[in-house]
Here is the input.
Amino acid sequence: MSVVSRALRIGGGLEDFNEILPSVTICGKKYAVTKILKNRLFQLEIDAIDCEKPPSVVIPPQADCRELELSFDKDGVHYQLVKGGEVAIRSIKGKDVKYLPLTTVPASVTCGGKKYKIVSLIREKYNYRILNDHEAMIERYKDTVVDVVIPSTVRYRNKDYSIVAIGDYAFNRYDIDIKSVVIPDGVKEIGSHAFKRCRFSSVNLPSSVEKIGASAFKACRLRSIIIPENVKRIGNWAFEFSMLDTVIILSKNVEVGLGAFKDCDSVSYIDFPESVDIHEAELTFEIDKIRYQVLNSDTVLVVKNENKKTPPNMISLGNQEFYVKRYPDPVIIRY
Here is the structure.
């Protein structure tokens, strides 16, 4: 029989895992940690367990086990083991403990007949994923602060990792309205739905950004956006339903996805290079009750006309001047 306990994803080598947790004691018997699974769980190879109650895992007092996320609940409080005899409080009745004064926390807690010293509160703002020896990604924003400054680095096991990516749905929260965000230089990728439904009206994308994921800024309150020169891909529906009035694309080789600017009905200024193919982005603007869809850097298509007049042959918007293309008049066939 095997006993498996949940562990944190770790980006470095796993050869030092046994140094963190060399052994455990189950029902009074000591077992060595013998195997590391590919999904970074640790597994104990045990032939049989003869216990009247569910087996309890006992960590040696000197073993630092913070990265393993071994935890237990008691009286509505969620504890995580720090060392064999020490715990930190992660949550109380399902709520974050970020603003809980440590002076209000008891000195210890007893569970399973063992007394643990309460040494700290876990007040993390983000979940991170270590990608390689020097880079990390933000997976989830967990704080309640609505004016967000994303860190450029994260420290893990006495080593600094550069933040190079923002994960899918990282800041897509239903419980808070994020009003502003600062994305640090060095971030290369913004994941799908990463900032969906956030309330900020502006965001500066650093020059390091290379990819903007699908629906990354969908339904935000963005008023303007400048796409940096190094961006190679704007995902499908990336800015759909936003409140954009200004769209500036500096990148000459960017691939623009389906509906990337769909239903951005307030656009009044656009500027992008001739080399950018934007016809599938559904970028539209309205002048004199006539709505135009941008096909390329010199042509627009009339998609809606409430003016009841013939659209002009040429139209200007911002620094761009466009030829106006109209659907041909329908052909009536009489029999």
Remarks:
- The two ends are 82 Å apart (CA to CA).
